[in-house]
Amino acid sequence: xxKTEYFPALEDAFDACxxxxxxxxxxxxxxxxxxxIHPHRHDAYEWVIATxxxxxxxSEGNKKEFNLDGSITVAIHxxxxxxxxxxxxxxxxxxxxxxx
Length: 100
Description:
This protein has one helix at 10-17, and strands spanning 3-7, 25-32, 36-40, 46-59, 62-78, 84-88, 92-99. With 100 residues, it is mainly beta. Strand 4 (46-59) and strand 5 form a beta hairpin. The chain contains 1 helix and 7 strands; from the N terminus they run βαββββββ. It has a single domain (3-99), classed as Jelly Rolls, CATH 2.60.120. The chain is 8% helix and 62% strand.
């Protein structure tokens, strides 16, 4: 199962996903159509946070597709050690990865 949460705005997603007074790594990515992030794992907890774009995520045999128009923000959570991948289906995907 791919754990997803929806928020009305990007700030709400960050507020809900970030622990207070704890260091997080925040990376902003912008990838073109067809870009694939192959299956991989991290020792850290990871969130993919996006507001716009058409993309697909995969995790441990599960797949989920998103087509976001900016009206909501999605946060996808991967616990530490969970295999996951991402494929850009639309023209461009501009999103954040947050790790702790």
